[in-house]
Amino acid sequence: MQKYSRIISTGSYLPQKILTNKDLENMVDTSHEWIIERTGIESRHIASECESSVDMAYNASLIAMKNAGLNSNDIDMIVVATTTPERKFPSTAVLLQNRLKNNSAFAFDLNAACTGFIYALDVADTYIKNEVVNNVLVVGTEKITSLLDWSDRNTCVLFGDGAGAALLSSSEIPGIISNTIGSDGTYKDLLTVNTDREVIEMSGNDVFKIAVNTMGKLASETLAKNNMTVESIDWLIPHQANSRIINAVARKINLPEEKIIMTVKTHGNTSAASIPLALDHANSNNLIKKNDIIMFEAFGAGFTWGSTLLKY
């Protein structure tokens, strides 16, 4: 019998410290109104100096495991999507495995920037469908504010920290319907980390235009290849980069605003953590019902992009 992968639980973690737009007004030449108009962001969570991507991943994972009723050694595979690892090596996933006291899984990191969680889902889905593993912990975790130049008003207002986790399990009932991932290194310099200064640099207008066009096209192609229409979707959970990008993509595919899960207002852009954080927010607020059709969609530095279509 064919095997499928299903998301059986989620968990999330956000640091205690909250940085508001009003706080940023005292740090850089900007205003609450300017940030809201261009990004939709009002506040974001900031990890403390002693809080790492592993710490946040661990806290999110504990909640996902508790919600699934699994213990750590029920997990066969751990995939962590991050651009901000605690160490160069060993991987964040291996450090997380150690914190979870798991001695039976194999673990590795994956870096596809803001699309990282979707890439990680694609890998997990493949391993489950090929019956290599039964339970996979997929985590997106970012201490992205560690890469910010707090004097650059074009980037420092955008990002926040956090972690989201999802547990995928083997099932005889369809869960993940399709995954699509892609990349184009031609645009490597439009959104990148300056290797001399270790800070994010971004050509904002170029990123905005390409993101909207790419995500709009990707959403349409994902539906078409699965013989679905936009009416089939119960929820779109996009990467939470910017409310203007999200709303522009929704308009391109004629998706009603009430079908979008949006957390960018209080999370900011948490890179690879943004989709699992938004998914857990929707779960925690009982927005998602059994058998809902959900589309994840992301676009990130590289450029990378990806979509996941699933039945919950």
Describe the structure.
By secondary structure, the chain is of the alpha/beta class. The protein has nine helices and 13 strands. A five-stranded mixed β-sheet has the order 1-7-6-4-5, with helices on both faces. Strands 8-13-12-11 form a four-stranded mixed β-sheet, with helices on both faces. A two-stranded antiparallel ribbon has the order 2-3. Strand 9 and strand 10 form a beta hairpin. Helix 3 packs across helix 4 and helix 6 packs parallel to helix 7. The longest helix has 22 residues. It is globular, with a radius of gyration of 18 Å. The model has no long low-confidence stretch (mean pLDDT 97).
Strand content: 25-35%
The overall pLDDT, averaged over residues, is: 97
Q: Order of strands across the biggest sheet? A: 1-7-6-4-5
Taking pLDDT < 50 over at least 5 consecutive residues as the criterion, the unreliable ranges are none
Helical content, roughly? 25-40%
Structural class: alpha/beta
Query: What is the CA-atom radius of gyration, in angstroms?
Result: 18 Å
> How are helices and strands ordered from N to C?
EEHHEHEHEHEEEEEHEHHHEE
Overall geometry comes to globular
Q: What's the main sheet like?
A: 5 strands, mixed
What's the count of strands? 13
